[in-house]
Amino acid sequence: MKAVILHGGQGTRLRPLTHTGPKQLIKIAGKPVSQWGMEALKEAGITEFGIVLGNNHPEKVVEYYGDGSKLGIKITYIYQGEPLGLAHAVMKAKDFVGGDDFIVYLGDNVILEGLDKLTNFRGSASILLAPVDNPQRFGVAVVKEDKIIKLVEKPKERISDLALVGVYAFTSDIFSAISNIKPSWRGELEITDAIQNLIDQGKEVNFHVIRGWWKDTGTPEDLLDANMKLLDTYLKEDVRGGVASSKIKGRVFISPEAKVINSELRGPVYIGRGSIVENSFLGPFTTVGDNCQIRDSEISNSLVLDGSTLNGVDLIDSIIGQNSTLVRRKQRFHGSKFVVGENSSVELE
To answer: What one GO molecular function would you report for this record (predicted)?
Structure first.
């Protein structure tokens, strides 16, 4: 069995974080979003991966993952180009898949439960479903008498609360089904339409409902929620870097070459390689990326991505993009600078 990781999309709901790279490479709990899924698939026994690349800086994906050897897998890169739908992306992987069964995994999702149900599936397809409160955001499945009878992509009316969570298992039958469908009203080839075509042909399509946690990391709030859950579930206490005159409480991971000086860390907290934390407080559910510098600051429940500098700031529920700088300026007087247009009204406290 092979795995196809869909790594396209523009990530518009995550801008400006995605102006300079794909959303799937944003690090949460110390790893890119897509790496969490790929490692889970490896644990399920899959070692051959095809990554379908979009047009938002695909070179950064290749640069990060390389040939896959650092993860103990083999990676083949497949270029989709313009985002014309999930089914279009799957079709691009046809040559890579050959005649093998395969799992399709949306790279911006974190789904670590139920993958074992897909590695030994029956029929032409099997999908993971989960009950949701907002089904209009997802493709949904209508199930009756333990059978899927209908799939609809982002329904305008509530017809089911069982959402497709972004992991599918297919045989090569899916390629002929994709050839049979037409673009939706969104102008895309929908994977829900392709699976529906399998059902209409009388092919066997199975499903498994997951009840545990999963996350579509499509918004900043989703990223922070995923970071919190992953730190809470998987972070192990491990201090590999240098610590001087500091208090460490709870589960804290300090990477090699990182330094913590005269600070307090209250876990779960992750600090990346080569970062410096000095005269600061890092509260629970904070992830600091590689080569960051944090001084005279207080940060909780936040993501500080690689290469960022923070000095004299207090943050909560925040995401700081790569190579950003937040510095509190020290002024001798407190003043405000304005350019105010005519007929304006400004109130100051």
So the answer is: glucose-1-phosphate thymidylyltransferase activity
CA 192: distance to chain centroid?
21
Give yes or no: residues 155 and 263 share one domain. no
CA terminus-to-terminus distance, the chain:
64
Mean pLDDT value across residues 96-106: 93
**Hey, what are 245's tokens?**
């005159």
State pLDDT tens for residues 193-246.
999 999 999 999 999 988 777 776 778 888 898 899 999 988 989 998 899 999
Please, what is the Cα angle at 4 between 31 and 152, to 5 degrees? Answer: 105
Is 347 strand, coil or helix?
Answer: coil
Cα 80 to Cα 84: distance, rounded to the nearest angstrom: 8
89 and 194 belong to one structural domain? yes
Tell me the residue range of the domain where 311 lies.
223-327
Which is nearest to 153 in space by CA: 168, 130, 167, 136? 136
* Token pair in block for residue 228: 């919190």
How high is the pLDDT of residue 54?
82
* CB contact set of 148 (below 8 Å; sequence gap of 6+): 127, 141, 142, 199, 205, 207
For the ranges 96-110, 139-153, 164-178, 193-207, the lowest mean pLDDT is seen at 139-153
Torsion of CA 130, 136, 141, 145, to 10 degrees: 80
